[in-house]
């Protein structure tokens, strides 16, 4: 019976892709056994493990949206589910290197995007957990089917620079914000009433008004 092992040997941005894609170089090994693998239906659960790296004060500030104040992190910093994906692997004997492509999003309603955006350097600790079905040829020449054990996983430190490269290629000098329809209608109404040509000017006007109100309130309090 195959004893498959998994190792991630690298990662890179997929150039010229229609959507943001990260390609992980996944090595699948069936050594020291010698069965011929006919096909492999591989399911992958990708998880971020934020407790496995350190954070500078500015990064801690940005991560407050996810984990709260650093004093609470011993209770709030837990693994973050990134995505589930699957891939059909062609037949091989011994080992094979494949591209495991992961679609990325710049939606700031998603916890993984908030986490990635808060980091400006270093690595992103990842754990990929594997399951699925393997079709192989036994030593007697018969076709066999087996399940991949649930304890199969691989760890990888994804450079933050790779994720930023992907986002910069698809969203140069911009970010994507998803709003509820009613919130968007209010914002759009404000834009039209004030004759503001761009959404950047809408946000800048609202932030300036909030700062002025805060300063006025502070002045009254003192």
Give a structural overview.
With 222 residues, the chain is α+β, with helices and mostly antiparallel strands. It folds into 2 domains: 5-170, Immunoglobulin-like, CATH 2.60.40.10; 181-221. The chain is built from 7 helices and 8 strands, in the order βββαααββαβββααα. The strands form 2 sheets. Strands 3, 4, 6, 7 and 8 form a 5-stranded antiparallel beta sheet that branches. A hairpin with a 7-residue loop joins β1 (5-13) and β2. It starts with a strand and ends with a helix. The mean pLDDT is 91.
CATH superfamily of the largest domain: Immunoglobulins
**Count of helices?**
7
Low-confidence stretches are: none
Distance between the ends: 76 Å
Secondary-structure arrangement, i.e. CATH architecture of the largest domain: Sandwich
| Secondary structure category | alpha+beta
Number of domains: 2
Which percent range describes the beta-strand content? Answer: 25-35%
* Order of secondary-structure elements: EEEHHHEEHEEEHHH
Report the principal-axis shape: elongated
Largest sheet: 5 strands, antiparallel
Number of strands: 8
Name the CATH class of the largest domain.
Answer: Mainly Beta
- As a whole number of angstroms, the C-alpha radius of gyration is 24 Å
**Helical proportion?**
25-40%
Per CATH, what is the topology of the largest domain? Immunoglobulin-like
If you average the pLDDT, what whole number results? 91
């Amino acid at each position: 019976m195959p004893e498959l092992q998994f190792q991630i040997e690298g990662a890179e941005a997929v150039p010229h892709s229609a959507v943001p894609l990260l390609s992980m170089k996944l090595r699948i090994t069936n050594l020291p056994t010698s069965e011929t693998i006919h096909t492999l239906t591989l399911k992958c659960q990708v998880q971020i493990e934020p407790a496995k790296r350190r954070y500078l004060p500015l990064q801690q500030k940005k991560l407050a949206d996810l984990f709260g104040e650093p004093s609470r992190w011993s209770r709030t910093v837990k693994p973050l589910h990134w995505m589930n994906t699957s891939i059909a692997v062609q037949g091989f004997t011994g080992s094979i290197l494949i591209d495991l492509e992961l679609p990325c999003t710049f939606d700031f309603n998603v916890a993984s995007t908030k986490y990635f955006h808060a980091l400006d350097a270093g690595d992103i600790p990842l754990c990929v957990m594997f399951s699925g079905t393997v079709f192989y040829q036994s030593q007697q020449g018969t076709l066999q089917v087996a399940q991949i054990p649930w304890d199969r996983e691989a760890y990888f430190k994804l450079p933050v620079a790779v994720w930023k490269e992907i986002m910069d290629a698809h969203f140069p000098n911009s970010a994507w914000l998803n709003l509820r329809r009613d919130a968007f209608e209010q914002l759009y109404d404000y834009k039209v009433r004030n004759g503001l040509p761009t959404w950047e000017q809408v946000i800048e006007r609202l932030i300036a008004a909030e700062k002025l109100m805060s300063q006025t309130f502070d002045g009254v309090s003192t």
